[in-house]
Amino acid sequence: MATDLVMNVTQAEDLDYMVPEIWAAKTYQEAKAMMLWERYSGPEGSMMPVIKKTELLTNPGDTINIQQVRHLTGAGRSGTQRLKGYEEKLVDRQVVLQPDWKRHAVADTVRTDKRITDRFRSLSQSALSYWMAVTMDTSLWTAARQTGNVGFEASAINDVFGGDATTVDTLDSSDTFSVAVIRKAATKLQALNATKIRTPDMPAGAGYYICFIHPFQAYSLKGDSEWINRYSYAGPAYPDNPLFTGALGEVDGVIILESTQCSTYWNANSPSIRYAQAIMLAAECLARGQEEEIVWSEQIDDYDFEHGIGVRAAWEDKVLSSEAIMHIYTAAIDPSV
User: Fold this and answer.
1) Domains of the chain (ranges, CATH numbers)
2) DSSP reduced 3-state for 219
3) Cα–Cα dist 71/265, whole Å
4) Which end of the chain is less crowded, N or C, counting CB atoms within 10 A of the terminal residue's CB?
5) How distant, in Å, are the alpha carbons of 51, 78, 235, 253 from that of 319?
């Protein structure tokens, strides 16, 4: 007697283990796409502003040490002068990164027959991707904005002020953001031998600093006569280069970008003036040490009644070189006032 064959049907639970992996990849890609700093990041030697150190993704440990040997500054010896006893010591300096986890989650109460639908996962994926992107971007902004002794040099980040101001408390309403202050900050970076940012498609010798400015600073810049004269007829430089994505323009080798992450404050002048902190960056000025990439996880609890979805990543961001960052303080004039 012939045996009836029964179709071997794949059940939802047979594929359930694949779902977290699929959504983890979607969360990771969507978060990366939303991160502003992602396009300015690369490995050591990439000449990007943010250096990503990922050794802990594949190797044991909880600390990343980035070391640098300072350039020799001694004059050396000439002719037949004795060299022994005149050797110069190598000076080693380092930045230590100790990644830590940042986590978040959402939860819902659903019945078992609804828990494998895409709706809750889709809403969670969007919300958690956005949260992680903002959290990771804000972490780098916090590093770039800090003012203490940091980086290889263990020194304070240099300041430049708008107009004739010399401190934030001497800023007045006339000390606005301008082409002149861009040029002043870039000159100081060049004097510190800060390496310019470049991408592989740029011709030999090309390179740029990047300057993030507050929208109120951008408003003043667009009213600056020198800026107007420069951009009345000028075309964009390297329009397909990611460094120029969203840029307002370029001034003497400085790409200008607008961001609300450039903080504003009120000074102690009389009358008190709102001012903003713009940030100009050179190559390899910030570092991100990553121990774990973005991970998506799901949890079913309380007899399959509660469904939780979480996301996590482990990293730390620090200033790598204080001499490769310039803070620019100018009046931030609200155009609506």
Assistant:
1) 15-70+88-147+287-322 (3.30.2400.10), 157-285+323-331 (no CATH)
2) helix
3) 38
4) N
5) 10, 39, 34, 22
pTM recorded for the entire structure: 0.82
* Local structure of 305: helix, strand or coil: coil
**Which residues, including other chains, have CB under 8 Å from residue 207's CB and lie 6 or more apart?**
47, 195, 196, 197, 198, 253, 283
pLDDT beneath 70, residues of the chain? 1-23, 61, 67-74, 88-92, 109-118, 232-240, 303-304
- Token pair recorded at residue 125: 């994926």
150 in Cβ contact with 94 (< 8 Å):
no
| Residues near 212 by beta carbon (within 8 Å), at least 6 away in sequence | 257, 258, 259, 261, 262, 278, 279, 280, 281
Residue 201 tokens read as 């498609």
Strand-pairing partners, residue 276, are 264, 330
